[in-house]
Write a structure and sequence with these properties.
Length: 221
């Protein structure tokens, strides 16, 4: 069996980036909150801002999920191997994501999060924020932290109930994170709706307005 050394090297480097991103993205996100709150005084408006960010993370994760399920195929360069294959394999083996490491589970999302966070940090160090800009930065930081957590919530939804901690069962029961029964709608053939897997809140609205049908039509243009 011939081993592709270059491919192995790439995988090793990519795994290094995944591990680094998972370790640093969440503490760095908290550090960003600290820097932002030093520049302006938080107010009660932060509560709806965080709620909206959590809702938008669900939509963002849903669109990425839809793209992985419907765009391209396993032979599409880069996209096929890294997105199409794991997303579609998940339909045939939903439990697979519960057997991989957390580094692999959260890595790609955390890489995206830390890129955004580094951009916010650079801007924060070079410009003086007014309150509106500060709230926007808080929204973006929260959005990508919550997006990074999406695969963890998705993972919990596929664990057996006995494998989930009690506080996770509580969060799932009240739909504060992805509820397994709710998510099962997506895993019903033909897997064409309920793509949102952060908390599932957006699924009701997007299904009602036939959002996924609209994306499917746009894809064919």
């Amino acid at each position: 069996m011939k081993i592709n050394i270059n491919k192995l090297a790439f995988l090793n480097w990519f795994r290094f980036f995944e591990i680094t991103a998972v370790i640093f993205s969440f503490p760095f996100g908290i550090f960003l909150y600290y820097l932002l709150f030093k520049q302006f005084t938080p107010s009660l408006i932060l509560i709806p801002i965080m709620f909206i960010a959590y809702f938008c993370a669900d939509i963002f994760a849903g669109i990425v999920h839809w793209a992985g399920d419907t765009l391209g195929n396993e032979n599409t360069p880069f996209w096929g191997k890294n997105f199409v294959q794991p997303f579609r394999l998940h339909h045939t083996n939903p439990k697979l994501m519960t057997t991989i490491s957390l580094w692999e589970n959260l890595g790609s999302s955390c890489i995206l999060a830390i890129i955004v966070q580094l951009t916010l940090y650079t801007l924060l160090k070079t410009i003086k924020l007014n309150d509106s800009a500060g709230l926007l930065f808080i929204f973006l930081n929260s959005l990508f932290i919550m997006t990074a957590l999406t695969n963890l919530f998705h993972r919990f939804a596929h664990l057996e109930a006995i494998e989930r901690p009690k506080f996770i069962l509580f969060l799932q029961r009240y739909h504060l994170i992805l509820n397994p029964t709710h998510h099962q709608i997506h895993h019903t053939y033909p897997h064409s709706t309920y793509f949102c897997v952060t908390n599932g809140w957006a699924n009701y609205i997007l299904a009602k307005i036939k959002f996924w049908n609209i994306l499917n039509k746009l894809k064919k243009l």
